[in-house]
Amino acid sequence: MTTEGMPVLTRTRRSVLATAAAALAVTGALISSPPANAAGTADTATAPAEVSPHAAQTIDDIGASGAWWVNDLQHFAPEVQARVAKLLFSKQGLDLSSYRYNIGGGGAAVTTPARAAEDFLNADGSYDWSKDKGGRTFLTYAAQYGVQDLIGFVNSAPARWTTNGQSCGGQLKTENEGDYAKYVADVTDHFARQGVKLDYISPFNEPDNDFGSCGQEGMKVTVDQRDDIVRALGAEQRARHQRTGIIADESSSTAQFTTEVPQWLSQPDTARYVSKLAHHTYNNPSDGQLGNVYETAKTAGKTSWASEICCFGKGSTGWNQEYDPTIDNALLLSRIIYKDFASAHDSAFQWWVALASGYGSDPTARNDEGWNDGLIYYDPDYATNGNQTLYFTKRYYALGQYSKFVTPGSVAHNVTGAPAGVEVSAYDRNGTWVVVVNNHNTTDTPLSLHFNSGTPVRAARAVRTSATEDWARVAKPSVSAGTVSATLAARSITTYVLDGKGHGSAAVTGALAGNQSGKCLTADASGAAIATCTGAEDQSWSYDAKGTLKGANGYLTASGSALTATAEPTGDASQRWLLNANGQILSEASGKCLDVSGQATADGSKVILYSCNSGTNEAWTRQ
Length: 623
Fold this sequence. Notes:
Layout: E1 49-58, E2 61-65, H1 69-73, H2 78-89, E3 98-103, H3 133-144, E4 149-154, E5 170-171, H4 177-193, E6 200-202, E7 219-220, H5 223-240, E8 245-251, H6 254-265, E9 274-280, H7 287-300, E10 303-308, E11 312-313, E12 316-319, H8 327-342, E13 348-353, E14 355-356, E15 376-378, H9 382-385, E16 390-392, H10 394-403, E17 411-416, E18 422-429, E19 432-439, E20 445-451, E21 458-465, E22 472-473, E23 478-480, E24 483-488, E25 492-499, E26 508-510, E27 512-514, E28 520-524, E29 527-531, E30 541-543, E31 549-551, E32 554-559, E33 562-566, E34 577-579, E35 585-587, E36 593-596, E37 606-610, E38 620-622
Parallel strand pairs: 1-20, 2-3, 2-13, 3-4, 4-6, 5-7, 6-8, 8-9, 9-10, 14-15
Antiparallel strand pairs: 1-17, 11-12, 15-16, 17-18, 18-19, 19-25, 20-24, 21-22, 21-25, 23-24, 26-30, 27-38, 28-29, 29-37, 30-31, 31-32, 32-33, 34-35, 36-37
Helix pairs in contact: 4-5, 5-6, 6-7, 8-10
């Protein structure tokens, strides 16, 4: 894991950490809104934000990992273990819909005991299924609570098959790829016989890193070996009739994911074994880089997952050493979830470790000695002082603002035109809408959100986490003529549940102006271009529930990197578009962005499809 560099802190723990309703004016703009101003306050919004009539991706799950902490928690009292399981998996807790179980590699040469996970393999090749007591305990709890997706992931193969005979710093030996595949399939079969079905297997985790300092388990898997391992495991699963999907390649950064996945996935007979493409986001990706994730997934014909992140802080979503249990870091977590769903269009979000012990000098206060890697913390000195208290962070409640409400099968709809400093995401599940809103502003902020259909008809519930609230029931928003109005508390995350039955979905219309040029999109049979905005009919676009953009000259259609307007609808991805809140307009055929070629600004400048890069020539605003 990327958390290898974190020290394991051993010190005596200090004090115990105990565990709206006016008008929000969101505009009908299809595209992005500016951030909060320098003072951290919202600029006044004058028009309602718009929930896209077109569905984006379907959400598979929201979860967290069971790495490391289970090895400590196995020594805790059974009632504490049961409480942790309830906090993670029950409807009263996070109600996680995925759980990542760490299939250990034996821990050979690993210097941190908790990160030296036991494997099941004996020296003679037989199995000892009594090993990894902590891991098995919480995997079984997850299954008993009915967690949707149980995922087995591997940091290192058993040490006997690595190039250096260790569980860190080595690489899987080529001649043992088949042995390793059989081992993973044996583990899968064993748990299935215990009534615990692993839905997915990730056979290598952060393969770009060998974790040679041995603070934790890990092995390097070069790009040209990844397809070999996937094929070996996939063939073994198929021979056994296992129905366990393979996810890969869990690179540390989206930049590695987008450059390396196409290399190994394109190798013969590989792609058919891959169920989901997974990436980590430790590079603090820009909107352009998140767009590249979508492009990579679309090109491969696969769904993408954001399968690990942690350890950001000091006001940034980038890697920083800090322990911050407050709403400030919780809002950063919520921003990362928002961007993964709204910009990369990932179908899953999985946090790193659910529990951790590295809170630094004080579990109740921000400090620079600890790490923001857990949701709940426990005393690293529990073995000597007997303290088994659980310490909650606001990140726990922030994740719950999504995981408790955005259930598997929910369909994401982009939201454009939110007020400055506000991020809005909307999810539909059989006519029930869930809207999660981050208010990063230091003042209460009005929001209006328009649903371009007969729903919602009734506000059912509003739940908020703020500096002083944890999943607090708050006043429901008002709803009138398809527009939800509320006041967002300063520095808060609010989830609204709205019940209703749809009555169709009208198209959203307007001109699309490039943020760099200020000029409007036009298209005809000869191509697409920008021109001075005049309000003329040929600059007006209608965006509908099918995702089509229809102008006076026909439907905007992609063909390679070229764009034209064609008279007839095709019904295929070449005429389907996603209008992101950040201003990007993405082709569902290629995942690429609508781009003013060469960053030109003159009338008649060509508009093409190009890999997303966060440029203002790829940002559009509805007029």
